[in-house]
Amino acid sequence: HYTFFPGTPRWPDGKSDLTYAFLPANQLPDDAKAVFSRAFQRWAAVTPLTFTATDSYTAADIKIGFFSGDHGDGEPFDGVLGTLAHAFSPPSGRFHLDGDENWVATGDVTTSSLSSAVDLESVAVHEIGHLLGLGHSSVEESIMYPTITSRTKKVDLATDDVQGIQVLY
Ligand code: TQI
Ligand code: ZN
Ligand code: ZN
Fold first, then answer.
1. How many angstroms separate the alpha carbon of residue 60 from the centre of ligand 3?
2. Which terminus of the chain has fewer Cβ atoms in its 10 Å neighbourhood, N or C?
3. Distance CA 31, CA 28 (A)
4. The complex's ipTM?
5. Whether pLDDT at 150 is above 90
6. Which atom of ligand 1 is nearest to the CA of 145?
């Protein structure tokens, strides 16, 4: 079953059109940007929320960045595997990914020759759930279930994810 963060934080009703931007220093390839766009659309499809990319990192509601090791927020990344990414509850909008992972943004992660390959879209869909206010779910099929293995792709929202997000928005 779905959960929320303590106090049930959510983006306020007047703030349903959210913008997102990538840390300019990261210089992401277009295929990686397309992965985030698809991941946001999965949540937009089942809520009144919209997500629009913007070039202004400082003005964006949701700030996405890849970082390695200690990056100044007290939650350092740990190299290959272990922690892959983290996102903070609303209205923080901070979405950080571990720059040391072997991210797969194109092609089929399930047949990657790297045993440590991690599917970027699967992690993005999960972290966006956190950004919107969902905690972890006990339903194994759900996107918000707290375990994912490398070389796995899980990007479709389960009924449990949809029910949880529709309580919030
Ligand atoms: N990162 C954890 C996560 O996103 C960070 C975390 C731990 C967390 N406890 C939390 C975030 C409580 C919010 C609330 O769950 S992770 C998965 C999953 C991670 C884990 O790198 O371990 C995914 C990132 F759930 F599948 F295991 C993405 Cl999809
Ligand atoms: Zn961080
Ligand atoms: Zn999580």
1. 22
2. N
3. 8
4. 0.94
5. no
6. 25
What span, in angstroms and rounded, lies between the C-alpha atoms of 23 and 62? 11
- For the chain, the residue count is 169
101 included as an active-site residue: no
Q: Which residue has the tokens 């990686």?
A: 32
**Ligand 1 proximity of 35 Cβ (cutoff 6 Å):** no
Just give the CATH number of 17-160.
Answer: 3.40.390.10
Q: Which tokens belong to 13? A: 């009703």
- Marked catalytic residue, from 75, 101, 121, 127: 127
Q: What is the pLDDT of residue 70?
A: 98
- CA dist 163 and 53 (Å) reads 26
Torsion sign across C-alpha atoms 111, 115, 41, 106:
negative
Q: State whether the Cα torsion 67-70-73-74 is positive or negative.
A: positive
Kindly state the DSSP code that residue 88 receives in the 8-state scheme. Answer: P
Give pLDDT, residue 66.
Answer: 98
pLDDT of 11 reads: 98
Measured from the alpha carbon of residue 146, the closest ligand is 1
